[in-house]
Design brief:
2 domains; 9-stranded mixed sheet; D-Maltodextrin-Binding Protein, domain 2; about 40% helix; alpha/beta; 12 helices
Length: about 325
């Protein structure tokens, strides 16, 4: 009887060890799951993830929220990572959190300019994102349409401008940093932001998707947003037009990064290679109007070449390294109004 009991205990322990080594979301070899944190719109997430799952057999769990919220989550989970990849969000936002990412040198980087990825491979850009003004043609005539960032302080638009919160939205932070730099980050940039915020009339949109949807629906006359989202409404016949500001704009890429301590590391690397691949970049260009980060994929329909757009000498390092200070300056302006 004792011998039988001992044999049974050995068998149970063996089964338990087998289960531990092969199961769950522990990142062991052969794992077929992946957890992605993403601020991308649902259309982008659903279409790209569907392609990825079909091609790899890897099951994806998505945690969707704003860039700022997701990065704070990554920070709070450091040492016990619950996610594997951050997919989306402005590169300067990702760059300010590189201590929580781990390097990965994708095989696809031979087709990506080095200015679009971290020199230590902690993040990689996946799509350059020019920031634009978008206006509703039913509410704003061609004659009165905005042409510059300065026009965002015009009294005719007071309370009619859609802008997301830079503390929550990566694109809104880039827009704010772009306007500051357009008027001098060491001179009159923050004075301009004070004028701009006053013209918002204390209205801040809760998330970036609310900006382009709000303008297209006529809730706002003008919005500051991503080119890639605004152009979809133009192509679909909505009563909107987009404008590249006369002072110049920025084209900071959104990016992808592997979270330090990712439990599904191999799958995370597979996903990074997938989103950077020529096939996926062409899919996103043709179906989602996203500019490609690659040098061998053409611009989407309806968008002029990036070389034809006036771009600022955008100080990426300043925007990334001073992000906390810049957001505090924004908060001080908001609280002080």
């Amino acid at each position: 009887m004792k011998k039988y009991f001992k044999v049974m205990m050995i068998a149970i322990v063996a089964l338990a060890l087998t289960a531990c080594s092969s199961g769950g979301n522990d990142g062991g070899e052969g794992s077929k799951t992946l957890t992605i944190y993403s601020p991308h719109p649902a259309e982008t997430i659903n279409s790209v993830v569907k392609e990825f799952e079909e091609k790899t057999g890897i099951k994806v769990e998505i945690v969707a929220a704003g860039t700022g919220e997701l990065l704070k989550r990554v920070e709070s989970e450091d040492g016990n990572a619950q996610g594997d990849v951050v997919w989306g969000g402005g590169a300067e936002s990702l760059a300010s959190y590189t201590e929580y990412f781990q390097p990965y040198q994708s095989k696809e980087l031979e087709h990506v300019d080095a200015k679009y990825y971290d020199p230590e491979y902690k993040w990689i850009g996946e799509s350059p994102l020019p920031m634009v003004m978008m206006y509703n043609t039913n509410l704003v005539s061609e004659e009165n349409a905005p042409k510059s960032w300065k026009d965002m302080t015009d009294p005719q638009f007071k309370g009619q401008i859609a802008m997301a919160d830079p503390a929550k939205s990566g694109s809104a932070y880039t827009i704010m940093a772009t306007m500051v730099q357009a008027y001098g980050k060491d001179t009159g940039g923050w004075d301009f932001i004070k004028e701009f915020y006053a013209n918002l009339d204390s209205k801040i949109v809760s998330n970036s998707s609310g900006v382009y949807k709000g303008v297209a629906d006529g809730e706002y006359a003008v919005g500051l947003t991503l080119e890639k989202e605004a152009v979809k409404y133009v192509l679909n016949g909505a009563p909107v037009k987009l404008v590249y500001p006369d002072e110049g704009t920025s084209a900071v890429p959104d990016g992808v990064a592997i979270i330090r301590g990712a439990k599904n590391l191999d799958n995370a690397q597979t996903f990074v290679d997938f989103v950077l691949s020529k096939e996926t970049q062409e899919f996103m260009s043709n179906k989602l109007s996203r500019r490609s980060i690659r040098d061998d994929v053409e611009a989407p329909e309806g968008l002029q070449p990036l070389a034809d757009i006036k771009l600022l000498e955008y100080d990426f390092d300043w925007a990334a390294e001073q992000k906390d200070a810049n957001l505090k300056a924004w908060k001080d302006i908001v609280v002080g109004q």
